[in-house]
Amino acid sequence: MLEDRVELVVLRCFLVTGGVGELLVVGVDHHAQVVHHPDRRRHAAPCQARYGAAVSSDQKNLLGQLLEPCSMAPRTGFFRTGCCETDASDRGHHVVCAEMTAEFLAFSASRGNDLSTPGPGFPGLKPGDRWCLCAARWKEALDAGKAPPVHLAATHESATDVIEREALLRHAADSQSLN
Q1: Tens of pLDDT along 44-58?
Q2: pLDDT tens-place string over residues 6-29
Q3: Is the dihedral of CA 160, 40, 119, 123 positive or negative?
Q4: Is 166 in contact with 147 (CB distance < 8 Å)?
Q5: Which of 86, 110, 126, 179 has the CA that lies 20 to 30 A from 35?
Q6: For the whole model, what pTM was predicted?
Q7: CB 129 within 8 A of CB 76
Q8: Distance linking the first and last C-alpha atoms of the chain
């Protein structure tokens, strides 16, 4: 049973602000998921059901529905929940769930953000991977004619604060979501 494989661990770690805090982590089969972070209340409610446990987020997608996962492999999102969730601490506004293309990856690298090269804790992206992009980077790629396809059901509704809704709809990889 799933319950037999869950191990709760409290870790001390450095927060983005440089302070020390506690995270409650659930580990299942060597995969960890942050389920409680006292300084990021929204982070405590990931957008999907994981490991058979039903959980939900109050964050919405472009379709006005509950935000769906973008990618668990590689694990994406500002909070690395697999979802394009956001809050005030997400200064880059990582809310656009995009499917990587070779053209976009080359464009992003040319702008100083190499998403293809692996680094510590980051596997590097390849065409076909999904990733929560900064809304401004996706808009920059759009303006250059290099915007990757967007998964509407996994893109946060606040993407329209930076990008025109119609542009996101035109680049929908999951246009069936509109029906």
Answers
A1: 344 644 323 333 468
A2: 332 222 222 232 333 333 333 322
A3: negative
A4: no
A5: 126
A6: 0.71
A7: no
A8: 37
